Amino acid sequence: MKLYQLLLGCKPAGRNIEQHDVFFGVGNSLKDLIPEILNFWPEANGKIHIDAWREVTHVEGFHVQVAERSLASQPVAMFFLNLGGYKADEFSELHYQMLLIGKDKAEVTGRAKDSAFFKHTGFEGAPSHIDDKYGVDVDDIFEIDDVLPAGFKDQFSILISRSEGQVEDEIHLGYLPLQKL
Hints:
Blueprint: E1 2-10, E2 19-27, H1 34-40, E3 49-55, E4 58-59, E5 62-68, E6 77-85, E7 94-102, H2 105-112, H3 116-120, E8 130-132, E9 140-143, H4 144-147, H5 150-155, E10 156-162, E11 172-177
Antiparallel strand pairs: 1-2, 1-3, 3-11, 4-5, 5-10, 6-7, 6-9
């Protein structure tokens, strides 16, 4: 089984522009994820496409695997962060998603604030941010185990181990309707 990260897109009824959300799922292929994707975003009425995806296997010098559910604890966890920022005179909020490995949210938040995106997308009156959930200026931050759909969480665990000679995950970009999977 594989852990996937997907950037989903759709234009729900009553919206003026395409909306996006990030989905994490476990399966042997992208096609295996279709039922959970549809459950994840019911307002889309099945009109969802994938704008980007990756099989998550390596993050920050760690190897990531999916295994049958285990209650054993690990010294580190994987976190998903959604950074937000602005550029002067651009009518938009820019976003950058990161996966980071660390012992807790405070540790990975500090490292996210050292990223080039965080440092270069903001200015006085419109600072870069990562939402304010945890006493810092942070947009969204979630432990991966917390954002997996319930069926996946009940059945699988994400195993994280140090890795030598890390190969970066391939990121696939482009419009991919679910019907084409």
